[in-house]
Amino acid sequence: YYRIARQECLDLTAASVRSEHTLNTRFEEVFRSINELRSEAANEIMFQVGMATATSASGSKLGYYNGPRLQNMSSVYGSSQGAVTLAPPYFYAFDSTDVRRDVTITTYGMASTATIQTGVTLIAATDGKWRRDWHIPPVTGTVNYLDYNWPIIRFSDVLLMLAETENELNGPTQVAQDALLEVRARAFGGNRATAAATLTAAGFSLSSKANFFNALTNERYLEFGGEGIRKYDLIRWNLFESKLAEVKTNIEKLALGLPPYQNVPLYQYYTTPTTASTAVQPIKWTRSFYRPSPTANAAPAGTTRVNWRQAIDAQYIANTKPSGTSYTLPGTTTPVTSTAQGLAAEYVPNKGKELQPIPQATLSADPALKQNFGY
């Protein structure tokens, strides 16, 4: 299968056919085009599910259920739920200069009847590739079908599949390295040297098959956030259990300010314009996400303070554990009890929940079909 996939990827990425599909030079443009209901010049999206009619039959709630939370129902952009939040360590998986971070993750919302963005806490940051406030034309009110298409295969996925299959078959050859670094370089303004240097600074190496694989798994993590790919990558790599455990451990490290999160601020501060406008007035964070908060941490005049690392409390961590689990944050004495509302709280390895259940209507239509294990 690796050989078949490798050859398909080589065929699709050959210079002679790149006039049909190639890597867009701007990561944001790929998703702006979806939100603006138009094509993009590079045709990076090679296969997607089309949505239309703004109905439950064939429409899409992308950008309503997920994306930044908008509460301005009577204003320009309507309302959205902001229901898909990110595990806090994901924000810090990105290099500070990686342009994918602020496309993939939103750190703002909009209050009622306003176009002014307001900052959110670290645990309220949402996925950002589908945003109601990016829709063109704007959709007001409570309409919740925005008809955003769902991409299945992007050209960057083909490049990273080429990198993976080449490494599995032949090790970290130049072909494998070129494919991975082509994707990564886009995140750094097309600068391959910066892409390689930041990869090294993050603790990754392309020097051996095992090292390359680790870098590859991380690159797919950064490239496809919010696109529904990561879970199935981890399952096919047999890393689902270990990576879930790793991110839960990192949540606690982040809460405690332990390395590599020792410089993450407890609080963040932002300013927004005060003049009336019908256009979006973007938030401006006044301090780095990578510097500790000042000792005197009250909000300076003209700014608003939000909990950042401070938002990750004992209850948030407890909720990543099975319901009823008692948890005490190290350094504190008060236990809290999990309500199992957090990340994969009830997941038990190898008990079948790696797959979704088959809908009852499908089972009823085909008596020979068996429900997935675990349901």
Name the features:
single chain, 375 residues, alpha+beta, 3-stranded antiparallel beta sheet, two-stranded antiparallel ribbon, globular
Secondary structure elements and their pairing?
Blueprint lengths: L1 H12 L13 H9 L9 E5 L21 E2 L5 E2 L8 H4 L9 H4 E2 L1 E3 L6 E3 L6 E2 L22 E5 H16 L3 H13 L5 H10 L7 H15 L6 H7 L3 H17 L10 E5 L12 E2 L18 E4 L6 H5 L7 E2 L8 E2 L22 H6 L10
Antiparallel strand pairs: 1-8, 2-3, 4-7, 5-6, 9-10, 9-11, 12-13
Helix pairs in contact: 1-5, 5-6, 5-8, 6-7, 6-8
Question: What does the model show?
Answer:
- With 375 residues, the protein is α+β, with helices and mostly antiparallel strands.
- Helices cover 31% and strands 10% of the residues.
- The protein has twelve helices and 13 strands.
- Helix 5 (155-170) runs antiparallel to helix 8, helix 6 (174-186) packs across helix 7 and helix 6 runs parallel beside helix 8.
- The radius of gyration is 22 Å and the shape is globular.
- The protein starts with a helix and ends in a 10-residue tail after the last helix.
- The mean pLDDT is 94.
Unreliable spans are none
Shape: globular
Q: Supply Rg.
A: 22 Å
What class do helices, strands and sheet pairing give? alpha+beta
Instruction: Give the percentage of residues in beta strands.
Output: 5-15%
Major sheet attributes: 3 strands, antiparallel
Largest sheet, spatial ordering of strands = 10-9-11
Number of strands: 13
Order of helices and strands: HHEEEHHEEEEEHHHHHHEEEHEEH
Termini distance?
30 Å
Number of helices: 12
What is the mean predicted local confidence, pLDDT? Answer: 94
Portion of residues within helices = 25-40%
